Amino acid sequence: MISLFGSDSLSGGSQIALLMGMAVCVCISMAVYRVSWRTFEAQIKNTLGEVSITLLILLCVGMLSGSWMVSGIVPTLIYYGVQVMSPQFFLVSACVICALVSVLSGSSWTTIATIGVALLGIGHALGVSEAWTAGAIISGAYFGDKMSPLSDTTILASSATGTDLFTHIRYMTLTTTPSFIVTMVIFFVAGLGNGGDTDVDVAQYTGGLERTFNVSLWVLLVPILTGVLIARRVPSLIVLFLSSVMAGIVALILQPHLLTEISTGTSQAAGGEWQAVDLIRGLAVTYYGATSIDTGYASLNELISTGGMAGMLNTIWLILCAMCFGASMVASGMIESLTQVIVRWVRNRVSLVTSTVGTGIFLNITTGDQFISIVLNADIYKEVYRKQGFESRLLSRTCEDSATVTSVLIPWNTCGMTQSTVLGVPTLTYLPYCFFNIICPLMSIIVAAIGWRIYQKKES
């Protein structure tokens, strides 16, 4: 499917492949092993029931991404973020900015395709190797993709393993933070010799944001309050919904011209006053549909465009198909057979985590898609971790430390293919400089070997 449809395979090709794989699995099991259809049906119902809340979370993520963008929260952070760059610290700045944008948007793809492309141009003007620049951009973007509660891969990894979303994110900091620190040190040392002038590029970016949004530090109250809710361990679905509501209120107060533009196609208020019906309609579209705002800067237009809840439907479709495929593998007994082979090699937590990391990378290579890799990796090891007495958060973290971050390093994977095309840098060219993506799987194994906050339950 990847060879036939490229990155567009996520829009339907991968889903069809999963359903066809499920059909083959069911046919073989029913014809050869006499597994009844009711067994498959029951397993599918149970599996889909487990991810029902996840699907609601994904819809709220779409709602949040649209409202945070149109309200000016993300643009304000970008506005101040790009101004911290200097030639000598360009690689570090590029990595940090991409990490910040990716955390806020929940999408490494969007980050790389928008601000990542702009940063690549700045790096070229500075005389920085495009391979180093691409490595910094991808490292930052995948840090954010991995740690953001808005990220579909983060939500998928937590739900596929039965782990609370914010518990999963907090536990990932134990491997992700050291990996990111090491990455930043490497980029800091490598970038010290750079020089040049980025004032024009930064001015274009900040000017476009200033002309379009009412840039104000007051909007940062929303992410601060969201952080408070997360710290108080409020359920993720409630946090995402309340944060979206707060962002919507900010949009009504500070960005009425944008809501009017989204609603009517023009930012001019009739009679000099904003019409309530236009504001409400614009806010509703921001929540559920695609928005596109003209800033006068093409790459910036791409960055601030959003898909709302409708933009999450392809991901939801893929998750449903992946879960059905995984359920059929479980019902047929194929997952159990594969697990038995793996368990023979597993002797302790280090070998278990190492095996999980290796399987995640292997699945990225063979399936060509990180979503499928996460689901299958979780299905293969879920029972093994339970029997070994480890908490589900260890499995969810290890799945992300392997399947999520290494997908962009494989040329025929949807991630690797997409990012190499967007940046115009071959996958194997930027691969040695994606330090975060390379270090993360190794850090996962190192932390397991040390035993840092990895607890094994005692059998009752």
Structure description:
The chain is mainly α. It has helices at 2-5, 13-32, 37-50, 52-70, 73-81, 90-105, 108-126, 130-147, 152-160, 165-191, 199-212, 221-231, 236-254, 256-264, 276-288, 298-304, 313-332, 334-343, 349-367, 370-388, 392-406, 414-423, 427-430, 435-450. 74% of the residues lie in helices and 0% in strands.
Topology readout:
Layout: H1 2-5, H2 13-32, H3 37-50, H4 52-70, H5 73-81, H6 90-105, H7 108-126, H8 130-147, H9 152-160, H10 165-191, H11 199-212, H12 221-231, H13 236-254, H14 256-264, H15 276-288, H16 298-304, H17 313-332, H18 334-343, H19 349-367, H20 370-388, H21 392-406, H22 414-423, H23 427-430, H24 435-450
**Shape annotation:** globular
Enumerate how many helices there are, as a single number. Answer: 24
- Overall pLDDT: 83
Helix/strand order, N-terminal first: HHHHHHHHHHHHHHHHHHHHHHHH
Class based on secondary structure composition and strand pairing: mainly alpha
Roughly how many Å is the radius of gyration? 23 Å
Strand content: under 5%
Question: Largest beta sheet, briefly?
Answer: none
Any low-confidence stretches, pLDDT <50, length ≥5?
Answer: none
Ends apart, CA distance between termini: 47 Å
What is the β-strand count?
Answer: 0
Helix proportion: over 70%
Task: Write a compact overview of the structure shown.
With about 450 residues, the chain is mainly α. It has helices spanning about 1-5, 15-30, 35-50, 50-70, 75-80, 90-105, 110-125, 130-145, 150-160, 165-190, 200-210, 220-230, 235-255, 255-265, 275-290, 300-305, 315-330, 335-345, 350-365, 370-390, 390-405, 415-425, 425-430, 435-450. Helix 4 runs antiparallel to helix 9 and helix 12 packs antiparallel against helix 13.
